[in-house]
What does this fold into?
Amino acid sequence: MLHELDRIIDDAIANNDRLGFFAYLYRRVTAEILNEVQLGNFEDNERMEIFDVAFANYYLDAYSGHLNNLKISKSWDFAFKSKNEPLTILQHILLGINTHINLDLGLAASAAMQGQEIVDIQNDFNKVNTILFNMVNEMQDRLSRVSPMLFLLDLVGKNSDEKVINFSLQKARELSWYNANLLWGLGTGHQNDAINQMDLAVLGLGRVITSPKSKIVSFILRMMGRFEEKNVGTVISKLRQD
It folds into this structure.
């Protein structure tokens, strides 16, 4: 699994493809979850190792589908096709986070617990969410290396009621668990309509990420983009530095 993510990152660097930004972050998340499994820090480590692979496969399958022009979820399709839009590095990362947490995480949890009580995975599910949250916070610190105007978003958040890209990771974590319970309750073979509705909702969030309603935030994002590093390989290299 990690080698597949490494391949995506290597291809992104070779082709100067901005899809590599999320792939880099997600590779770090996946490795951290596997590390926690190896340390025995989950309630059911064997189950979580299987869950981690299944969760990652939603992204890997969507990426493969994108490359091969196959039908994939509307939210992933939007995220992938936005790679050539004049967005900031942060926006490209958030597009991936949005779909993978708000859609894929609930799907993976529901699938993993069919035939079992879904509440049994809740503590480990929350631990995965905590890992995601911590990695995103770390990534924000690292992003300042390649996005020197990133601090402007912090100023907006502290000094006004504007919501940066109207995206709350905390709400995403809560929504993913709600979706997991909903899909689990419906059961295999009865989930398609619910999944389609979730996909459309996540697509809507993706559109907000690319085009924030706040004029102030939109202006700041344009300013950030002007001063960001444009070479994907250089960006990932600087993000990797300790």
